[in-house]
């Protein structure tokens, strides 16, 4: 067996299920689940229609590169959304469809992992999406958890990373907007990282699956490829971004996304995926073309989240210090006592299921940045989120 399997941590929702099993619900409220980041807004009808209108595609093997029309729709979206120069983004060379970013985030570590480095490391934020850690362990690398700022942004503190760490890095994961804090990486962050990547020869993978869920319509998050283009790095050397329709288009079950960036890395990843069997089914490709070609439903999706933040944050602020993030759909408040105990109390006394912050982070550099925080996913309808906030407020008032 792969020895990395024995080092995998239980997934956060396995831990949460165990926590639920030993928590007695002492109230009569119906459960409101704010624990998992699964969008619950309706998938737009035109996306579903595009899927069902092409079911004859199930009779054919799809190609790993995907339909040219799909890559072209993604290319147009990238150029429009991130202000990229068209010649720098080739639908054939710079883009590869994937079956959701989760599988691609995992597989890329197997692809670019370098065994030529002694004690290779894969860097990642802390707190983090646990796929990064699992990918590192199963590739045979050691995870390196970036030190985090003590405030609610929990942004990576690059200058606190010893210089000796960077030569050992084979891959660095970043998540912008961040899960769970909503922090958006800045031009300074990207400049620092790309300089290190160039000096020490590692790959930067930016998980940007929350990039379209921002609160300020005039300030969309800057992406890694956008920064590269603005900084005179039009070949996107050593840089890859991953995007998904799960959050943007409320289609988590479609399992559709893409990887874009450095053409040499894309070609290498393509070769890996021809063996992995990662081709996207043809009906899914046609539904994805429809989704990437429309922005109206995306703006409406943002409006729904903006409404929820505007209604929920004032309620929770009666007893907690809570602020809406720059992007994403999570709240990440500090709580007055142990985060696991708080989640148990919210479940037992308010029938509201949240996620302990310590389930999303690790002890590193003398701290565990998730401890003492909970993640609240504002994914249900607005009225349910408001009801959950009122119930949580009553529990926090007693704490």
Please describe what this structure looks like.
It is a single chain. It is built from 13 helices and twelve strands. 39% of the residues lie in helices and 12% in strands. Helix 2 (45-52) runs antiparallel to helix 10, helix 11 packs parallel to helix 13 (382-398) and helix 12 crosses helix 13 (382-398). 47% of the residues are buried. It is of the alpha/beta class. The model has no long low-confidence stretch (mean pLDDT 96). The longest helix has 21 residues, at 296-316. The protein has two domains: 3-42 and 297-398, Aspartate Aminotransferase, domain 1 (Alpha-Beta Complex), CATH 3.90.1150.10; 45-294, Type I PLP-dependent aspartate aminotransferase-like (Major domain) (Aspartate Aminotransferase, domain 2, 3-Layer(aba) Sandwich).
Number of distinct beta strands: 12
* Structure classification: alpha/beta
Q: Biggest sheet, strands in spatial order?
A: 2-8-7-6-5-3-4
The percent of residues in helical segments reads: 25-40%
The whole-number mean of residue pLDDT values reads 96
**What is the count of distinct domains?**
2
Q: What is Rg?
A: 21 Å
* Percent of sequence in beta strands: 5-15%
In angstroms, what separates the terminal alpha carbons? 47 Å
Order of helices and strands: HEHHEHEHEEHEHEHEHHHEHEEEH
Instruction: Tell me the number of helical segments per DSSP (H or I, 4 or more residues long).
Output: 13
Tell me what the CATH architecture of the largest domain is: 3-Layer(aba) Sandwich
Q: Quick one: overall form? A: globular
Q: How would a textbook summarize the main sheet?
A: 7 strands, mixed
Please report the first level of CATH classification, the CATH class of the largest domain: Alpha Beta
CATH topology of the largest domain: Aspartate Aminotransferase, domain 2
Uncertain segments: none
């Amino acid at each position: 067996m792969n020895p990395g399997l024995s080092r995998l941590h239980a997934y956060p929702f396995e831990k949460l299920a165990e926590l639920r099993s030993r928590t007695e619900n002492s109230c009569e409220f119906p459960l409101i689940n704010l624990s998992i980041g699964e969008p619950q807004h309706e998938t737009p009808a035109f996306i579903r229609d595009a899927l069902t209108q092409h079911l004859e595609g199930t009779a054919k093997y799809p190609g790993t590169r995907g339909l040219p029309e799909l890559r072209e729709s993604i290319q147009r979206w990238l150029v429009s959304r991130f202000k990229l120069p068209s010649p720098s983004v080739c639908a054939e060379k710079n883009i590869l469809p994937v079956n959701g970013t989760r599988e691609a985030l995992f597989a890329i570590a197997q692809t670019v992992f370098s065994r030529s480095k002694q004690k290779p490391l894969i860097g990642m934020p802390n707190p983090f999406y646990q796929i990064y850690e699992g990918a590192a362990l199963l590739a045979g690398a050691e995870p390196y958890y970036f030190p985090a700022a003590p405030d609610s942004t929990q942004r990576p503190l690059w200058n606190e990373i010893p210089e000796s760490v960077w030569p050992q890095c084979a891959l660095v994961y970043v998540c912008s907007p961040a899960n769970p804090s909503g922090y958006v990486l800045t031009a300074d962050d990207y400049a620092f990282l790309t300089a290190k990547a160039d000096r020490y020869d590692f790959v930067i993978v930016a998980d940007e699956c929350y990039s379209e869920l921002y609160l300020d319509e005039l300030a969309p998050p800057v992406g890694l490829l956008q920064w590269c283009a603005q900084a005179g790095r039009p070949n996107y050397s050593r840089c890859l971004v991953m995007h998904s329709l799960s959050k943007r288009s409320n289609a988590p079950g479609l399992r559709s996304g893409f990887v874009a960036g450095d053409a040499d890395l894309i070609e290498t990843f393509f070769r890996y995926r021809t063996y992995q069997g990662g081709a996207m089914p043809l009906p899914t490709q046609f539904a994805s073309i429809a989704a990437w070609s429309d922005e109206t439903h995306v703006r409406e999706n943002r409006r729904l989240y903006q409404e929820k933040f505007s209604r929920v944050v004032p309620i929770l602020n009666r007893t907690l210090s809570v602020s809406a993030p720059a992007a994403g759909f999570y709240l990440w408040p500090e709580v007055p006592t142990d985060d696991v105990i708080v989640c148990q109390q919210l479940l037992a006394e308010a029938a509201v299921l949240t996620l302990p912050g310590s389930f999303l982070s690790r002890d590193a550099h003398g701290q565990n940045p998730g401890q003492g925080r909970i993640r609240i996913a504002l994914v249900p309808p607005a009225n349910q989120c408001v009801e959950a906030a009122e119930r949580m407020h009553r529990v926090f008032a007693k704490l």
